[in-house]
Design goal:
Double Stranded RNA Binding Domain, binds manganese (II) ion, alpha/beta, TIM Barrel, elongated, 16 helices
Length: about 500
């Protein structure tokens, strides 16, 4: 089977999403290298930016086919051909509802439009995927007539669009087989959460290609999610796709970053919590044997399992986390540490690595003098200024002042901090996350960061009403922990 990815067209139609041509190219390159067969790069008629993106992608020499969305209009088809697309996704409304209410035309008008467009696109040397919009509400006989005539006039492939997500797997199983008179794609929407099930049902019924989007982006509730379809086929049906699954998470985070659409934390496969365990029983289980509570191995999609600590944690996971940080608590100390974690957890807090270390230090009476302290911090931002931050840190009793600019005040602050410790260590900010704890502009802001140094990763937090100070506090706390002597004694017992 084949994957037709429409992240850059239907996915970009997600309300509020707009990608620049170079961002589209970046995603297209990743889609091609991960093994997607067709990339719908955009809709040439939409804007000049779209045309530029199609040109960039078609010129990039990707192994994937570069497709563009067109209506049954010569002008659209000309743009597709002129900007170098290999193929067109030629979309024709086929339900009476769309034909009469949207187009204000008749079925025979639609047949003429469709056939003329197919012929014209073939004349222009394009591969044609003739697509029936709102096919799930169309008269199946009329739909077949559209497809048959289209194929006779040279359409290479067909597509069945469940435009508003009204299919069921049962309907799909009966609707699809008679339509497979040429290679057929299935294009599903997730309005009722059935996109994946319907896509799968269509593939089983004879469709040979699935239209998908990364992270399930798309109009309204989105399209069939690429990562879910690939992993469901691989894991549940033992079907080997041509996709390099180890790159899925990277692709997903790239798309999330560039589109600005955050991943729901509990999203299948790619959500933050999809491979995170907190509860004592589950964490204990996966520490002994991952398959006890994991159906997909996180490594297969390029992720790692995470055990987080909170009020559900048991002593096994707390002990495992402490061991990783070189703490060797005695049983009594471990009990006390677990107790304090549960208290924090009950307050609704996520327990970061620095929280755990602070608790362990306190319980085990380990003295920890910070490696670095902040002496001053200034940030400037506003209209007509480049956000700039300066910071003075005392590192190993030496004063270091650094300044940096950034895309915003937080970015500038992070860069200034990184620079000031650059001589001591190469510390990088891997992840940055903000939660506002209450509703107004005076809200307490909770910033969580993931920092890394030579492959060692640490999470840390800062909570303030000032978002920049919360960020600085989180980073300094994390840096202090990363800079601690690795061979220091962490099994000291209380005096
Ligand atoms: Mn669609």
């Amino acid at each position: 089977m084949r994957f037709f990815d429409t992240t850059l067209r239907d996915g970009e139609q997600t309300p509020g999403v707009s990608l620049e041509p170079h961002e589209k190219l970046q995603i297209a390159e990743k889609l091609s290298s991960i093994g997607v067969d067709v990339i719908e790069a955009g809709s040439a008629a939409a804007s000049t930016g779209e045309c530029e993106a199609i040109r960039l992608i078609s010129d990039a020499g990707l192994s994937a086919e570069c497709c563009t969305y067109v209506r049954a209009m010569q002008g659209d088809i000309d743009l597709a051909a002129d900007y170098g697309a290999d193929s067109v996704h030629l979309v024709i409304p086929v339900s009476d509802l769309h034909i009469q209410k949207k187009l204000r035309k008749t079925r025979s008008d639609v047949l003429t439009m469709a056939y003329d467009a197919v012929e014209y696109a073939k004349e222009r040397g394009l591969i044609v995927e003739l697509s029936g919009e709102d096919a799930s509400r169309a008269d199946p006989e009329f739909l077949l007539e559209v497809y048959r005539g289209g194929v006779e006039r040279g359409a290479d492939r067909l597509c069945f669009c469940d435009t508003v997500g009204l299919l069921t797997p049962e309907k799909t199983a009966t609707l699809i087989p008679p339509l497979c008179i040429a290679p057929l794609s299935i294009h599903c929407h997730n309005d009722l959460g059935f996109a994946l099930a319907n896509t799968f049902a269509a593939l089983k019924a004879g469709a040979s290609c699935a239209h998908v989007t990364v992270n399930g982006l798309g109009e309204r509730a989105g399209n069939t999610a690429f990562e879910e379809l690939v992993m469901a086929l691989e894991v549940l049906y033992n079907y080997r796709t041509s996709i390099v699954t180890g790159e899925i998470y990277h692709l997903s985070t790239l798309v999330s970053k560039l589109t600005g659409v955050a991943l729901p934390v509990n999203k299948a496969i790619v959500g933050e919590m999809a491979f995170t365990h907190e509860s004592g029983i589950h964490a204990h289980g996966v520490l002994r044997e991952p398959s006890t509570y994991e159906s997909v191995k996180p490594e297969t999609i390029g992720r790692k399992r995470r055990i987080v600590l909170g009020k559900h944690s048991g002593s096994a996971s707390v002990d495992a986390a402490l061991h990783e940080m070189n703490y060797r608590p005695e049983e009594k100390q471990l009990k006390e540490i677990v107790k304090r974690i549960k208290v924090l957890g009950d307050e609704g807090k996520r327990i970061t690595d620095t929280d755990l270390m602070a608790i362990a230090d306190a319980v085990m009476a380990i003295e920890c003098s910070p490696v670095l302290r902040m002496k001053q911090f200034t940030v400037v931002s506003g209209s007509n200024v480049i956000p700039t931050a300066s910071v003075t840190l005392i590192v190993h009793n030496e004063e270091i002042t650094s300044a940096a600019t950034g895309t915003g005040p937080v970015d500038a602050a992070m860069e200034a901090l990184r620079k000031s410790v650059a001589d001591v260590a190469d510390i990088r900010l891997e992840e940055y996350h903000v939660d506002a704890i209450s509703g107004g502009t005076d809200a307490l802001v909770d910033v969580t960061v993931r920092l890394s140094k030579d492959g060692k990763i640490i999470t840390s937090r800062g909570a303030r009403t000032d978002i920049i100070m919360a960020s600085v506090e989180a980073v300094i706390a994390g840096m202090n922990r990363l800079l601690r002597e690795e061979n220091e004694n962490r099994s000291k017992t209380p005096d």
